[in-house]
Design a protein that fits this description.
The protein is of the alpha+beta class and about 70 residues long. It has one helix and four strands; from the N terminus they run βββαβ. It has a four-stranded mixed β-sheet, covered by helices on one side. β1 and β2 form a beta hairpin.
C-alpha cells in the first residue's frame, strides 16, 4: 500500500462487536483487540494485539479500544 493507511474501528454495534475498515474496505466484525490484529494481518499489516489500542494509525470511533459490547 502506498500513502498513509487508514484503519477505522467503528462504535460497537447494537448486538456487540465493532466493524473494522482499512482504506474503506470492511474487514469484519471484531469482538476484541486480537480480532482487529488478525483482520489487519490478513490485510498484510502486521501488528501485535497488545499494540492495537495505542497504534496512531487506528481511528477508534465513538469509544476507545476498551469497549466491545452492544452500543
Amino acid at each position: 500500500m502506498s500513502g498513509p493507511i487508514r484503519v477505522i474501528v467503528h462504535p460497537p454495534s447494537p448486538t456487540g462487536g465493532r466493524r473494522v475498515r482499512v482504506d474503506g474496505e470492511i474487514l469484519g466484525l471484531a469482538h476484541n483487540a486480537a480480532d482487529v490484529a488478525e483482520f489487519l494481518r490478513r490485510a498484510g499489516l502486521e501488528i501485535d494485539p497488545s499494540e492495537v489500542a495505542v497504534s496512531p494509525w487506528i481511528d477508534w470511533r465513538g469509544v476507545g479500544p476498551e469497549t466491545w459490547g452492544p452500543g
